[in-house]
Fold each of these.
Amino acid sequence: MVKFIDYYKVLQVDASAEPKIIEAAFRKLSSIYHPDINKDPSAEEKYKMITEAYFVLKDKEKRKKYDEIYKRFKTKATKPSKSSKKIVIPLVIVFSIIIIIFFSIFYFNYLNNKDYQVEQQDNNSSIAEQTNQSKQNEEEKIIIPSQFQLNQDLNIVIAGSGEDLLEPEVNSIIFTSYYNNRNETRSICLPVQTLMDIPGIGAELINRSVEIGGMDLLALTLEKGLGIDMQVDYYILMDISGVVDRLGGIKINLDQAYIINDYASGKTFSLEPGSNLLYGTEALNILKYFSGIERNVPLEDIIIQKKIIDSIIVKIVGEDDESFVNNLNLIKDMIDSDLNLEELLKLFSTFSKIGADKNIIYALEASSTELEGEGIVYLPDITNIAQKFSENNY
């Protein structure tokens, strides 16, 4: 079981502590456990954890994301134990018996008033249905912005998964920076089995960060693990199979043929050079095939994952504004994002219009090794990433 690290406990402060308290705690503990001062063999590890905690909690945005994860773990920790459940179950049984006796006493009166109750129930159901329909219509309403165009730089993580967005099986992770003044995107595709230091957890595979603390924790992991001074502003998590099927399929263009594994059936299917029409299961299998889990697939081919995501975005945008809004309405329940629908409209519209020469895609440079029980694991080489994403690199 993965152990969550409480950064507030590490710094010996309350979760509501102000920044100056956190800084003071860091300075105090550093003066005690810094390896140059404390020669105890365990001091270096303690100092490393103190530094990691301060790295996250001193930054307003990083702390905000960490607090969301912190609340989830605190909520899990306060759930009733199995022993308490054993006490609750007999109480429920006794309560149920009392209800049955009570129901029996008034059963005769119920039968006499049955017709009246049925009529009232029908009326109430009709009212509830109308109310729910009205709420649904309000929820589905998308405010159309005056222009479908981003007007700011941003960094976003886009991940693809299966249909369960609450406990997702992540098959693709792409970090993308958008440069507004050049209308350009630069993306790096990461194998899901990449080993990074997950804040609060330690060295772990990056796809596990989503399982442990959601997309917020993945964002924190990439901010620290990619070695670039960039904050992840937003995230998008997609049910790839569901989205592609709702849209009626997508098309991708390839330079060569591939034989792709269908991981559910154990069979394979072919992709041809040129245009390929894909439906949900095929798109999901392609993401998984190029996620770094296959020994015989070159890591540089992982950029095909970005082609899948780009094709989905183009299909969402459609041919006109009306189809754009309709498509987004169709799939919005299959997307988890901290962008609202209006912001998604702007992002998808902008990304869909970026030409191939401005849509720069990198594969993570990494060495691979085998770990028992994990298969292929990638050790990232982040030496050149900062340069690739530098404003001056164009």
Amino acid sequence: MESLISFLKHSSGLELLVMLGVILLAVILIPAGVWIVVASRRRKAVYLFLLVALLPLLLALLGTYLSLANVEKAAAMFPEASAEIVTAARQEAWIPTYLGAVGTVIPLLIGVIGLVLKKDNQA
């Protein structure tokens, strides 16, 4: 929890916007996935939902890339920074990916359950 608070304090506006996008996308995908599973009659819609469910993770990877780029730029600007500080900053840069993974797993599970429930093999 301490590293999350530190990450939020030291994040740029773009990094925070990416994290907000990941959270909003995950929150929207959960009820959308349930609706698709209940309303669709074929597996094609569920397969499409599974592809869309990967978006929070992909957006989070973009946020991680931006964070790591900022860490490397700061490490180059301040070579006297200790290795422990740079390592801690790199670990904090992975927080968006963890958040994106959680935001992706839940919709993916909903999609997999939908595939199991849809017994027809038509696409």
Amino acid sequence: MGKNNVTTQGYFVKRLRDNGFLTSRVYDRYSKEDRRKWTVVINPDTDSVFVTCVNNGDWPHKGMYHVDDGGQKFPANLYINTLSVEVVIKHLLEFKIEQLELNNYGGRSRQKSRQKATQASSEEGQSQEKSV
């Protein structure tokens, strides 16, 4: 199975993050008999949309995704059967799931982490200047 496959959890998460969705891996250790392969959560602080990849018989070449947000924005038992993450993204946008940030890593923005590190080092430098 290729790295850039719509059914690969890492690729799926990367594409969602690259499109501005906060995305975290939830679970990927379902039993071999279980049709579910992995679950991620999108925008956990605001929308909490759970997306579970399901083996629809075309596994691992085509993914079927169960989308569930507890009935807040998505209809119950919504399944998306697709070869492309873009189709999933299109559904997220149609159902008003916000694109919050770009380049997220583990729920934290790389840019924000860098800004905090830069700010902390400049504050440290200022405090050393004052003590001299």
Amino acid sequence: MNLYMDKKELKKRCKNPKFCIACFRVRRHVKVDEHHVCLDCRKGSTGMPRRLRAITLKNGKTYFVDDRLRELRNIHNPCDRIDFEDLRLHKIDLLNW
């Protein structure tokens, strides 16, 4: 967060759909997404969070696919997880494809 901008000012600026919270500028000629981050700030940034892909297995549960941790995590219960190696060796019948 910008040290020179209080929450009230930030809230006011976020009413403008062209305001980027990453670079704290109004971007007139660059697209700004629904999270108030412009494409210039998104481009090439490894620090920006991204949504994980979700798949539904034959057991009816939906899991996030986390390639970094090499596991599937239940979208409702993150403690319910399946390692890729376990899936490959033992639970191959759970996949829909």
